[in-house]
Amino acid sequence: MEGVLAYVTAFAGNFAPRGWALCQGQIMAISQNTALFSLLGTTYGGNGQTTFALPDLRGRTVVGAGQGPGLSQYSLGELAGSETTTMTVATMPSHGHTATIKIVPGANTTADATTPANGVYASPAAGEQLFGPGGSVNMKPYPGTLTTGLNAGGPIPFSTLHPVLALNYLICLQGVFPARN
């Protein structure tokens, strides 16, 4: 299988053909792979004196190096991302919740009752007012209850992985040396 030196491609087989290697971060000897080292350098690892590394694409998705309009900058060989993340109250974006509250009278007696049931506001009869015009009568506040959503769960990691299909990535070790334009 002839290829261009340092070319990376997906391969559905479970082995690397002759002249190719799986992209699994292997450490390579510079002395035995000088042409490939001249293309990769230590971008993916190695000491640069006697060794260099192949890209390690196990469990990784490839992204183009550089920066597109409105996108993040990625340098050649840069690792980024995570399969899981943990959201906590501190990392949650600022937001609010709304609630609709409906006060319903707690007694079925009429407004003119001297001792309304449960000691709370009574339901006025049709055409009657709930409050007296003089304002000299003290009434207890309505003992309503508001239930809001409480924090549920906790800081447990959750997956951020998009659907994937695992294939092997290969890199060409022996092939045509690419000419620069």
UniProtKB/TrEMBL annotation:
Coiled coil: none annotated. InterPro entries: Phage_tail_collar_dom (IPR011083), Phage_tail_collar_dom_sf (IPR037053). It comes from the Bacteria. Residues 8-62 form the Phage tail collar domain. This is Phage tail protein. Pfam families: Collar.
